[in-house]
Specification:
Distance between the termini of chain A: 53 Å
Largest sheet of chain A: 7 strands, mixed
Helix content of chain A: 25-40%
Oligomer: homodimer
Order of helices and strands of chain A: HEHHEHEHEEHEEHEEEHHHEEHEEEH
Number of domains of chain A: 2
Chain lengths: 392, 392
């Protein structure tokens, strides 16, 4: 039995495990010290009543023979796919129910979608970016090209005219940089993809953080995108579902390659290798997308965005260069005095008891940069910023 | 962009979709007729109080800032992995917590585990068997050999001495045949796998239905299996979690190939392409594996096994040859008078308004056989058997 050699090409340790280990070591050495975590992008506020009530009701339904539900459709209950369609309709995007697939989160779907593509496909990945894009392709033994983000392009690289690739990842609002592509910039990407029949894998996990009404919150707001893009989103960052697990993936019927509908391929993949999302979760997600649920989520997101403003003000006062924090929960700063990302990580941890994420963990072009997140309690954010002002 | 050609090798329609279409057509033509479904293996009884209470409490925890949970470990919460270890300890199998991976169901994990193996691996699949084993391997473009089940071997094929393969699937109690391998038979499989360093993918989804204390309920009850087998199980058929979605996969530390730990590979796969199971589900699963939860599940399983006895008696009276129904919720019968599986399906549907599953849907050797399941209400089972006695 031979193992898949792609796994041997992976770097040894996943970014967040290395951070966790360093924090654990620091805690061991400084037992009394409080550590403030602005590192992992994890929701912290409680779920709102709309979602809770719906999930409690769903649990009760499973306790009675008349309302018990066993297997649902692998691609999700119609009630939830319709709710997603209404959510898109509100942003001016018309989708058919059969174009929406409910999954257990964008991370799973973005990894599993690769099943559909030929092993020899060439993949284009922005650098820096969420590490799973790269790792999942290395596992599959694919050839990967990088698209350099930099201070100059504000970490929003555009396609060079001569660049060829089969698949391109776009994450906007971006994790880790917090940058957001404008409508004009996304038009360039769509035109590029259509010209060479490439597929855009569009990660819109943070679309709910966009405050500027001129910025696109879905790739399908760009004409032509339904012929070249798959969009992934989840309720993790939209409605606090990081522990409840629900995402959705849109594969338009217009997306056809080699004469084959990618919607049909993904349906086949999911019906064969997936068995649907918890009924309780799906009822919670339906409630999260209701008017009341959206209101409750918007209140939480406002809290996080206020946190982001506190961070941004501090960085501005201290003279840091940074992006993000206006339409995204992430702030991406340049490390001072030419420090490397891990040097700055160690300095923040040891001088301020403050945890962030080294930019180099997101790719080579992230070296010398650093990510802070707004997902924390306000008092922790405030204390973290006080420490930064006084001690770093 | 080229698609994965493996998908083009798949048969056109998945078994259960074809059944659903035929039933829909029949209903359209016979609007007044009640159709009794003994086709799909889906749980029908409500969840018990132990599980419900745990899930309600988990929902409430998510509604308060103090007890809110975001991302958990991808491989599952320690409380649930420990509960699985205790469940195995009760059957005489010692596992480390880190050998247990919590997932959203055996179907997902059994599909996704294939990521670990080299594309050129040769796969051995019993025929007949649960169709996803074959389809997932065809998607990956792997070379598949079949191992013929028959009336003669009671659909429990053993490894011929000269047979070579890298991966073998074993499903015991078997879906669809309801046959269960004895300890001696599994010893043969383990010896075969160890001799050629093959991997056994052991699907124990129906282990809770085994009534005979001499039959193994885990491959790890066979010495040597921790060096050659991965075991998949779920709470779908153990505790009615078909709609709640929770499974577990055991990858022992002793399982090493090419000098590489498969446990580490699977951990890497899951941390990169999966984000864990709903916290609510995991609390429900923990409760399902508690003493009270197990008691409640055993009561439900007893109901289904009593159903199975009603079916078995009827078939015996009518002179059918069949396997299963004693230690599994499935009864696998030979179609009468040399009929094909789909001919018998049509006959049962049209003469009795009764839906079962054509054996040919599970592989070539399933042709001429037919599956009935015990997952239905007692009164439906009784009415179905009356119709079978009087009308078929």
């Amino acid at each position: 039995m031979k193992i898949n050699r792609g796994f041997l090409q992976l770097n040894d340790r996943y970014l967040f495990s290395r951070i966790a280990r360093k924090v654990q070591e620091y805690r061991g050495e400084h037992p009394g010290q409080e550590v403030l975590n602005l590192g992992i992008g994890d929701w912290t506020l409680p779920l709102g009543p709309a979602v809770l009530t719906a999930m409690e009701r769903a649990v009760m339904e499973l306790g009675s023979a008349e309302t018990f539900r066993g297997y649902g459709e692998e691609q999700g209950y119609a009630f939830l796919r319709q709710a997603v369609c209404r959510y898109y309709a509100a942003k001016g995007v018309e989708l058919a129910e059969s174009e929406v697939f409910i999954g257990d989160g964008a991370k799973s779907d973005m990894g599993n979608i690769l099943d559909l593509f030929a092993p020899e496909s060439t993949v284009l990945i922005p650098d820096p970016v969420y590490p799973a894009y790269l790792d999942t392709n290395i596992m599959a033994g694919r050839s990967v090209k990088f698209l350099a983000g930099s201070r100059e392009n504000r970490f929003l690289p555009l396609p060079p005219a001569d660049l060829r690739a089969d698949i391109v990842y776009i994450c906007s609002p971006n994790n880790p940089t917090g940058s957001v592509y404008s409508r004009e910039q996304l038009k360039e990407w769509v035109a590029w993809a259509l010209a060479q029949e490439a597929i855009i894998l569009f990660d819109s996990a943070y679309e709910a953080y966009i405050q500027d009404p001129d910025l696109p919150t879905s790739i399908y707001q760009i004409p032509g995108a339904q012929q070249c893009a798959i969009e992934f989103c989840s309720l993790s960052k939209t409605a606090g579902f990081t522990g409840v697990r629900c995402g959705y993936t849109v594969v338009p019927h217009g997306l056809v390659r080699d004469g084959i509908s990618l919607n049909e391929l993904w349906l086949r993949r999911q019906t064969t290798k997936f068995n649907g999302v918890s009924y309780i979760t799906q009822r919670g997600a339906e409630a999260a997308l209701s008017e009341r649920g959206l209101q409750e989520s918007r209140a939480s997101i406002s809290t996080y965005m206020a946190n982001a403003r506190v961070i941004a003000e501090t960085l501005r006062d201290l003279g840091f260069w940074f992006t993000g924090g206006e339409n995204a929960p992430y702030i991406w700063l340049q490390c001072p005095q030419g420090m490397s990302s891990w040097e700055f990580f160690d300095l923040l941890l040891h001088n301020c008891g403050l945890v962030g994420t080294p930019g180099s963990g997101f790719g080579r072009c992230g070296e010398g940069f650093f990510r802070l997140t707004a997902f924390a309690r306000r008092e922790d954010i405030s204390r973290a910023m006080e420490r930064l002002r006084s001690r770093y």
